[in-house]
Amino acid sequence: MSAALPSLAFAGIGLMGLPMCRRLLAAGYPLTVWNRNPEKCAALVEAGARQVATPAELCQQADVVMLCLADTAVVREVVFGTVGVAQGAAVGKLLVDLSSLEPTATREMAAQLLSETGMGWLDAPVSGGTAGAESGSLAIMIGGPATDVERVRPILLSLGQRVTHMGAVGAGQVTKACNQMIVACNALVIAEVVALAERSGVDASLIAEALAGGFADSRPLQILAPQMAESRFEPVKWHVRTLLKDLDTAVKFSREQGSATPISGLAAQLMRLHSGQGYQEKDPSTLVKLYRGQSPQD
User: Fold this and answer.
1) Is the pLDDT of residue 298 over 90?
2) Where are the catalytic residues (predicted)?
């Protein structure tokens, strides 16, 4: 069965990349991996993956190269650097970027990769967090040519419950920016709600239960409100810096498009304030401390 499946490569073995790679291996895909910190690949190598020393080597054994990296600058370096993916690229191979990046930069990099090497680019950012990556229930929004999307759809369905083709290259990143605007603003309001309930003498741990099924209910409410109420900030499942980066991306892109995003702009300012107080690498559930007036040590 494994021999009939396309060979895959994956760069970025982090909070999301590691569980996604585990699922690809479990599905039987031959997998080559690379990470800036090579030690993070050890568990995958033990599970059957092949490790390489540079991103350029990823294309040697793979038909499809997948990325899950921190930001636009990192993706650009991993793809176009001196030992980047582009050095081993060829016509017929595909790059699938699962990272959350700037839409405009994505379109520019995709055009450059195609013109210089003939390798196609699909932007396929995901939503669902580490829990979704572990369970294979991610929501995947993808941009690129329809034929390329259908080529990788079976691979992506090993990672997610739904793959939605949003349009041309860059459309996936626009959709992810919209997703993060909703998530980040929701997280900030949930923190306000929990802090208000606490100050008013209401048991904040009951907020999520009380509102379940109502118009205010949401997955972020059910996940974040109990964590905030219980001051349960570990383990870190995602980072404040990630939400801040995505909000900045959304606000920048909205300016480029001439679209107003005042709520997301305010959310970015509040997220930057929280990040600057020592929470950059912390879980967004710590946003409640912003309204409690607590320090990272509290």
Assistant:
1) no
2) 176
Asked if residues 47 and 70 have their Cβ atoms less than 8 Å apart, the reply is no
pLDDT digits (tens, 9 = 90+) for 8-50: 999 999 999 999 999 999 999 999 999 999 999 999 999 999 9
Nearest to 20 by CA among 99, 95, 76: 99
Classified as helix, coil or strand, 216 is coil
- Give residue for tokens 């219980």: 230
Cis peptide before 235 (omega within 30 of 0): yes
Nearest one of 76, 109, 255, 284 to 180, comparing CA atoms: 284
For 174-290, CATH number out of 1.10.1040.10, 3.40.640.10, 3.30.70.100, 3.40.50.150 equals 1.10.1040.10
- Separation CA 65–CA 58 (nearest Å): 7
Cβ partners under 8 Å of residue 134, min gap 6: 19, 22, 23
176 tagged catalytic: yes
CB distance 210 to 226 below 8 Å = no
Q: Which helix (H) or strand (E) holds 166?
A: strand 160-167
Instruction: From 49, 42, 47, select the one nearest 66 (Cα to Cα).
Output: 49
Confidence at residue 205, expressed as pLDDT on a 0 to 100 scale: 98
The CA distance from 116 to 112, in Å, is: 6
Cβ neighbors of 234 (< 8 A, separation 6 or more) are 283
Domain ranges of the chain: 8-168, 174-290
Of the residues 40, 93, 176, 237, only one is catalytic, namely 176
